[in-house]
Batch of 4 targets.
Target 1
Amino acid sequence: MSNVAQYDVESIRNDFPILATEVHGKPLVYLDNAASSQHPVQVIHAIKDLYESGYSNIHRGVHQLSQDATKAYENSRAAIRGFINADCIHEIIFTSGTTESINLVAQSYARPLLKKGDEILITHMEHHSNIVPWQMICEQTGAELKVVPISDQGELEMDRFAELLSEKTKIVSVVHVSNALGTVNPIKEIIDAAHAKGIAVLVDGAQAVSHIPVDVQALGCDFYAFSGHKLYGSTGIGALYGKEKLLNKMPPYKGGGDMILSVSFEKTEYNTLPYKFEAGTPNIAGAIGLGTAIEYVQSIGLGAIAAHEHGLLEYATSKLKEIDGLRIIGQAEQKAGLISFVLDQVHPHDIGTLLDMEGVAIRTGHHCAQPVMERYKIPATARASFAMYNTFAEIDVLNEAIKKTIGMFS
């Protein structure tokens, strides 16, 4: 059923030890990948090997362990640069994840720029991490937050985007792939329209980079943020891409060690890029694990992964549409491998609990996207999200588990 003849999903699954787990005596069917993906042995071993035989703090150390750890850490930065095709490694900032990356841009780029009467443009499908930082900036600067609405199908209303984009707009911040709907937004079109008016664009790529190829130079975005734990890496690590000319002009986001060249009580001289934005001891193991995760994804190929996941999405959508009383929330023409749904007379939390008894792990709730739930007048959804290691047989298990759940409430 996969579109990729050479795609060996069973070989891939063998690289993920947790997939052999049983839950409540049933084989684990892990469909919560939009929250966090699982880890291949290559990533597990890279982190384990660091702690067992190669750990040291990085930068400045002259001893061999520090030199080796620093090299591995910076090799991961280089891997990220290549993965998203940034122009140079100085444009890659290690952060704790997408949330910190967005806050960095909000405080370091937007806050010094904005004044009362200026506008920030986001969309109705944003994760809370791409809403709250901008609300905070508005409180701090007097700027106003504008929101692009979404259609019943879960697509941005691009005519309204064009209307809202004005001379008052100073930055656009938009999600690449919606974590609540699966919608793949027309990012290139958004960036081009914003740039035609001299407006910078930040893209939240947390749900995109593990599913579709991303080329920041081809997109032309000014900033691009993503997290490691949705890309087969660890929690607590992520990256921010920013155009070098913008990053050079931005003040540091945090102060402390490693982001300085010299410190006196009279004056501090800040470090060069990318270290100017990396205060304190970083998540060394997380960064090295993320570099390994990227190498693993590249060894399979994002094109092949995307095709496989699209096949899963089409199959799951067709199966779930056959179930009476099930309604899919978000049916955009361009979607990633994610399905949010509700059942008549069954709360999503009950769906998640009963599916768990069948070994099926999904996510239930508002998915840190409460405005999306309000748009569709629902309290929450059940969300099944797919990864490179999921199979069509697992979709069948999900399908039967949902039917069994409905039967219990009939």
Note: The radius of gyration is 22 Å.
Target 2
Amino acid sequence: MHIQTLYKIKSRFVTREVGNELIIVPLSGNVAQMNELFTLNETGKFIWECLDEKNTFDDIVALLTEEFDIDENTARTDVELFLKKIENLLD
């Protein structure tokens, strides 16, 4: 799934910040599915917030390396895993 597709799907979730974590609740119609709550840690929250209409996969990797002072391979793996998990939520 492409980054831009995931960005469009973000509108199907309600988010709330709690400390350094982000709680994501999927919507069904206009109602939140409270039996499906997802908590993102600081890294997941950062990646989620980077999902927008202009950022590419490589952009997000670069932003992650800058924000968390990690190497590119680690950032690439983290972004890939995060995106796969988000895709699995939508299946």
Note: The helical segments are 3-9, 42-50, 57-68, 72-90.
Target 3
Amino acid sequence: MAKQDDIAFETLGYKDWSEDNQRSPQNNAFIYQAVMDALRKHTRSVGRFDAKSFSR
């Protein structure tokens, strides 16, 4: 999660992780990517989608 956290913070241009920033739907693609990355460390057959499939 830390890697995607850093990527989201920079990509979305946050100055801090405010309450509103933490709850923003813009974070969904980054959360999804972190979960899929973790699952793929254990098995490759977890799904064909990645964060690029979602609009930000």
Note: The chain has one domain: 2-53.
Target 4
Amino acid sequence: MTASDRAVELARAAAAAADDKKAERTLALDVSAHLALTDVFVITSASNERQVSAIAEAIEEALAELGADAVRREGLKEGRWALLDFSEIVVHVMHDEERVYYDLERLWKDCPLVALS
């Protein structure tokens, strides 16, 4: 099983919005073969709490323009790890320190990368 075309479209839009806000090390993982809940994880990071929140808000706005609204959001207020669940994709906007500590890329290393450009 691979990620749907819609999930890839949303992941690319999320990555572009993150890039516009100077996010760092953005990547997307096709988790569809391992999870029934979503197709793609988008992971990106920033060096401070304000930037984490700004990136998350920009992603929400960009995906809303494509007709995708977050069904769940967590961590926006704290600005350390914002999780945005759009059903087809889940976006993790992480502070650099949390990204290093939790190392989601290692946890999901068996999942293929989604081309973002």
Note: The domain at 5-107 is CATH 3.30.460.10 (Beta Polymerase; domain 2).
